[in-house]
Amino acid sequence: MITPASIQVGVSDRTIWVRVEGKGSFSNATGLKQFGKEMTNRGFRQFVIDLQRCTVMDSTFMGTLAGMSLRLRELGSGQISVVNLNDRNRDLLVGLGLDRFFNMGPVPEGPVMQQVLPSTNDDKHTRAETMLEAHEAVVAANPANEAKFKDVLEYLKQDLHLTH
To answer: Does position 17 have pLDDT exceeding 70, yes or no?
Structure first.
C-alpha cells in the first residue's frame, strides 16, 4: 500500500521540526518552501528535517532543502539538520554534494507534530517556479550539478517564459 505523502511540522523551543511522510517531491516542495520562508521571516533559524518515514526524494525536494539552507547562510545564522535518513536518501544528498549543507548528526528528541502542511494544488506556473528555484539551488550549492540539470533548467526556464 502506498502511503500518501504529507509534511508535518511542529515547534520545540526555537527549532522548527519537519517530518516527511512518503515521498518528498515537487508535489509537496512548494508548501515546504513557503513554510520555510514564513518561519525564517518570523526569526526561526534552526530546522530539523526528519526523513525516517520518507521513502525517497526527488531533485526538486532536495533543491528546496538546499535553498532553505542557502537562505540561512545569507542571513548569517541558522542550520538545517537532516535526521533519520535511509541509505537511499543519504546517497541522493551525497551524490549531489548537498550533504555539506546540512548537519546530518545524531537525532535530537523532537516534539509531537502539531500541524500538517496543506497539500498545495499549485498551478502549473507556481509549480514550475518552485522547480526552477529548487534546481538553481542545487546548482548554487554544488556547481558540479550544473551538467546534471542543464536540460531541466533550460526546459523550466522556457516553460516559465511561455506561461507569462
So the answer is: yes
